Amino acid sequence: MDFAPRIQARLDALAAISAEPGAITRLYLTPEQARASALVMGWMREAGMSARLDAAGNVIGRLEGPVPGSPAVVIGSHLDTVRDAGRYDGPLGVVTGIACVAALAASGTRLPFAVEVVGFADEEGTRFAATLIGSRAFAGTFDPDKLACPDGQGVTVAQALRAAGFDPERFHEAARRRSEILAYLELHIEQGPALERAGLAVGLVTAISGATRLAVTLEGEAGHAGTVAMDGRRDALAGAAACVLAVEARCRGEAGLVGTVGSLTASPGAVNVIPGRVAFSLDLRAPDDGQRAAALADIAAAWRSIAAERGLALAWRTTHDAPSVPCDPALAERIAAAMAAEGHPVFRLPSGAGHDGMAVGALAPVAMVFVRCRGGVSHNPAEFASLPDIEAGARVLLATVRGLGADG
After folding, report:
1. What's this model's pTM, rounded to 2 decimal places?
2. Does residue 283 surpass a pLDDT of 70?
3. What would the DSSP string read from start to end of 228-272?
C-alpha cells in the first residue's frame, strides 16, 4: 500500500480551503476552519472511525478498541495555519494519522487499545495571539481567562465560539482524563534543515524546546545627529545593536540553543536624530530548561554591562515562558524500533519549534517523528515534503502503532 499519493491529494484539498485567494490561511473558529473540519471528519469516517467535534472545535476520530471506551493511543497535529502558510505544517500529521488508521482497519488488525486521530483547532495562535488553544483544551490546561482574548477586530474567543456554533460555557468539556489516553504520537515536518543535511527522510524527536520571550527597552538620550559629538552619546540603538550581538555570541555553537531578536523599533525614528529609545524582543529556546536558564542569565549580565557602559537604562518583561517537553523514552524507543524495521537510521534531534505535544504532555507521554522538508522551510508557501519522505513517515508511524499493539 502506497500512502503518500493519497496523503498528498488530501493535503492539496485542505490547501484549497483558505480565507485568502492564492494563499493558505485557515484561522481558528472561521468558516474556512469549519469547512476543513467537515472534510477531515469525512475522511475519518471513510477510514472506519467515528468522528466528532469537541467543545473547543478539535476534530476527533476514533477507531474503537476491544472494549467500548478503551483507553486510546492518540495521533495528532493541527489543522489551523498561519497567514499565507504552507500545506504540510500541521495537516500532514492529521492526514497521515488517518491513513494509518485506514490501513489498520483494512487489514483487520486488532489492537488492545483504541486509536484516535485529533486535528487540533488552534495551535498557531494566529487569530487570538494565544497559542495551543485546541491542545490545551484537550489536555485540560486551558486558562479560561483566555476566552476573553480579542482578535484584531475585537472579537473575543468566547464570541467567536458562539458565532461558530459552540458554547463557551461548555468549553471545559473538551478536557480529557488521564485514564483515557495511553500515549500521544505526532508526525510533523521538521521545520529545519538537520534531516536534509544528514540525507535522511525521518528523524526521532528527543524533546520539544522550551522558550522564553522578553520585551526589552533601552532608554538613552535623543539628540541632533550633526551636533552631538560621538564621545558621550547615549545612543539607544547602538546599545541595542550590541545587545543583539551579545545574544548571537552566547547562543552560537551550543547545541540546541537558539536566540533570536525578531523585532526592533527605534524612537523617535528620524534619520537625523540619535535614537533615544529602542524596544526589541528576545526569543530564547533550548531543549533543556537548565541550558535555557543559564543562557538567559548570561545574556542578562551582558546586557547590564552594555547598558552601564553606554549610560542607558535597561528594562524588560517576560511575555512568554514555557518549559521544554522531553519525549517519553519508552515511546521514543518504540519509534526507533519502527525506524530500524523500516530501514531508516535512527537520527535523534530536538524540536526548536513548539507543537501540540507540548500541551498534551501534561496529559500523557508524548513522542514525535519528523519528516524531512526541503530547505528546512516552514510557515511559507514554499514549504515542501517529497512523496518518498511522506511515505517513509507514514510507514514509521504505522509500524510504531503496530509495535505498541504488540507490546500490549
Report:
1. 0.90
2. yes
3. S-STT---HHHHHHHHHHHHHHHHTTSTT-EEE---EEEES--TT
